[in-house]
Amino acid sequence: MKNTLFWRLCAFIALGTVLLFWALSWLTNHTETSMSFIDAQHQQQLLNYGRQAETILRQDGEAALVVWLKALQQKENTWAAVVRSKITPFADTSLPENYLERFQLGRSVEWKIHLYFEENPTMEIPFSDASSHFLIQLPQRMRPGAFLLYAKLFLQIALPLILLCILSFVLYQHVMAPLRKLEHATKAFSEGKLDVRVAPYLPHRNDELTRLAETFDHMAQRISMLIYNQRQLLADLSHELRTPLTRIDMAVDFVEQNINPKQALERLRYEASTMRNLVEDTLTLAWLNNESPRLNTDDFDLVELLEVICEDARFEYPNCMLTTDLPANAEITKSSQTALGQAFENIVRNALRYTPATREVNVSLTQSDKCYTLTVRDQGPGVPQDMLSDIFKPFFRVDKARVSDKALTQSAPPSGFGLGLALAQRQIAAIGGNISAQNYFASDGALLGLEMVIRLAR
After folding, report:
1. Domain named Histidine kinase: which ranges (predicted)?
2. How far apart are CA 256 and CA 265, in angstroms?
3. Is-contact 113 143, C-beta < 8 A?
């Protein structure tokens, strides 16, 4: 799913917001309800007032009750009264018994108090005769909800702020955890730890940040490979340059000492040409490795290109047998004639170099609906099975990798610097193709030679 992190955050925030409003509403209602009842101690005090009034009325009479009521009103700074009630229906009507039982002139001490009313309610404590009632306006000191304002401030400001901070922290951790790992990996990579990767530390995530980590790992893999390749290339190039440089030094000494100056100059010219070719091939290889270009600007006839290359190879190796099995034409589009020609030339020359004069190199081209398949078969000594992939490595010596055959090895010409097949592989990859190598055998199991197979998209 695209934008996984976006939808995850949306769901988290939406759910968190709904839960936040629900929790605030529930807590507000619950708090207001719990604060709307008279404290139990005050309830008992009001009930005691009612019992005292009834006791004084019965034992000491109304005069004593008047004095007590005045003292009570002054003490509680409110009004109080004792009344008699007798409900008398008329017009041939009657009241249900349950109504008479529920009827009250004021509020019971156990009832909920409306906190938003400015005036305190009138409380009623009925006497035992059910016709007399003690009434008192709830004293201000007994009014519930004294801390309602502070509770509202906490519920409407402090609590939402705390919950939103917690929600923000959870979201921050969810987003920053992989970013923090990516930061540490980037720092470690910049310090030279080229094997550091991020994706293994995020096994249970699958969102944009995971894809960012995978992109970083891909970048780190590519950069580390480029660095390793450059280091190896530099080390190999340095090693390869030592021999021609040593020979150049010796040739310069011969010229200075006038010892065979003509031969020394030829040696200088040969070694300079060798070094130039080595450096040019190495730079080309480095460019292909580093830039990974896509060479797809040419449309041409593949058969025509192969015929030119084979003709040049026959001229260069007149004692070798080079046969071809090519169709009449093979049009290829979005390719590179230069890169493909250089790659084919290196492969064909390599095959001719290791095939004795009495044997044959065959170049064949077949085509299908999707690709062309070029096969170059030599009849040389082959390559050890475990080294077939190594022949495409820079500066790998083909003659050292091939199956031991002293007669063939001694008669074979020098194998160059080991860059031909490495360049060919990268040039073919740059035009979207691939190359592989394998030994091929006779029906009796005898090794016949090496087979290079190149596949190109049509």
Report:
1. 236-458
2. 11
3. yes
pLDDT at 79 over 60: yes
pLDDT of residue 1: 52
CA atoms within 13 A on the CB side of 121: 20
Closest C-alpha to 24, from 150, 115, 152 = 152
User: What Rg do the C-alpha atoms of the chain give, in angstroms?
Assistant: 50
Least confident of 209-213, 247-251, 288-292, 372-376: 288-292
**What confidence tens digit (pLDDT) does each residue in 418-432 have?**
778 888 888 888 888
Mean pLDDT of 265-279: 84
Residue 46 CB burial class (10 angstroms; 0-12, 13-18, ≥19): buried
For residues 166 and 34, give the distance between their C-alpha atoms in angstroms, rounded to a whole number.
27
> DSSP letters of 312-378?
HHHHH-TTSEEEEE--S--EEEEE-HHHHHHHHHHHHHHHHHTS-TTSEEEEEEEE-SSEEEEEEE-
User: What region, left, alpha or beta, does residue 91 occupy, with left being phi > 0 and alpha being psi -120 to 50 degrees?
Assistant: left
- Which helix H or strand E contains 439, and what residues bound it? strand 434-441
Q: List the structure tokens of 165.
A: 């901070």
Round to whole Å and give the CA distance between 6 and 207: 9
> Please, which residues have CB within 8 angstroms of residue 393's CB and are 6 or more apart in sequence?
418, 422
Question: Rounded CA gap, 227 and 108, in Å?
Answer: 88
| HSE-up of residue 78 (Cα within 13 Å, Cβ side) | 18
**Long-range contact list for 189-196, CB < 8 A, 24+ apart?**
189/220, 189/223, 194/220, 194/223, 194/224, 194/227, 194/228, 195/224, 196/220
Q: Which of 35 and 347 is assigned the larger pLDDT?
A: 347
Quote the pLDDT of residue 206: 81
For the entire predicted model, the pTM comes to 0.52
The span from the CA of 418 to the CA of 398, in Å, is: 7
Beta bridge partners of residue 457, listed in sequence order: 371
Distance CA 325, CA 328 (A): 10
CA distance 354 to 349: 9
